[in-house]
Amino acid sequence: MITEPGPAVVLITGVMAAGKSTVADLLARRLPRAAHVRGDFFRRMMVSGREELRPEETAEARAQLDLRHRLSALVADEYARDGWTAIVQDVVLGEDLSRYVARVRTSPLYVVVLVPSAATVRDREAERPKTGYGDWSVDALDRVLREETPRIGLWLDTSGHTPEQTVSTILAGLAGARVPAPGRIPPL
């Protein structure tokens, strides 16, 4: 059991309303030296000309998503290089997950995929003050997660878990979330 990953990158992903933000923040607060890298922060930095990713993907929306993922991976690597555990939280699904893993240079890299049921996600989305789905349906994004996303890292069905229970489960299973890959470099 790894209770303190040290200088590392931990990617927490899943569909919208899966609990990524809450879990990432709680996990960062449980560690002695951690930074919470919010992928959506890089999306919001694009003030004009931003295109949201929709089911009918455009080249520009794809390019902006790739930029967002490159930036968060770079920032996470820099935090880890300076001795921090970088907790990255973003929607990274389908083949984007493999691309994201390839972008992170830090070793160790841990990937945690939150996979609550679609019914749980619908309930959580209804309770949130913000709306994340726009043109997407919960079922469509859930299908991308379950059918098109490679089984990398630790996959957790968090349907019946509190955020605190999820963080405890992540810490208890972090060794199973480690993603070995050639080319990873340990932080200085």
Keywords:
188 residues, alpha/beta, Rossmann fold, 7 helices
Task: Describe the protein.
With 188 residues, this protein is α/β, with parallel strands linked by helices. It has one domain (8-177): Rossmann fold. The chain contains seven helices and five strands. Strands 2-3-1-4-5 form a five-stranded parallel sheet, sandwiched between helices. The longest helix is centred in the middle third of the chain and has 23 residues, at 59-81. It is globular. The chain starts with 7 loop residues before the first strand and ends in an 11-residue tail after the last helix. The model has no long low-confidence stretch (mean pLDDT 89).
Topology summary:
Layout: E1 8-14, H1 20-30, E2 34-38, H2 39-44, H3 59-81, E3 85-89, H4 95-103, E4 109-114, H5 118-127, H6 138-148, E5 154-156, H7 163-177
The rough form would be described as globular
User: Structural class of the secondary structure composition?
Assistant: alpha/beta
Major sheet description: 5 strands, parallel
Helix content: 40-55%
The beta-strand count equals 5
Strand content: 5-15%
CATH architecture name:
3-Layer(aba) Sandwich
Strand arrangement within the widest β-sheet reads 2-3-1-4-5
Supply the CATH class.
Answer: Alpha Beta
User: What order do the SSEs take from the amino end to the carboxyl end, as H and E?
Assistant: EHEHHEHEHHEH
- The total domain count is 1
Q: Uncertain regions: pLDDT < 50 for 5+ in a row?
A: none
CATH topology title = Rossmann fold
Task: Report the C-alpha radius of gyration, rounded.
Answer: 16 Å
- Alpha plus pi helix count: 7
Corresponding CATH superfamily: P-loop containing nucleotide triphosphate hydrolases
Distance between the termini: 24 Å
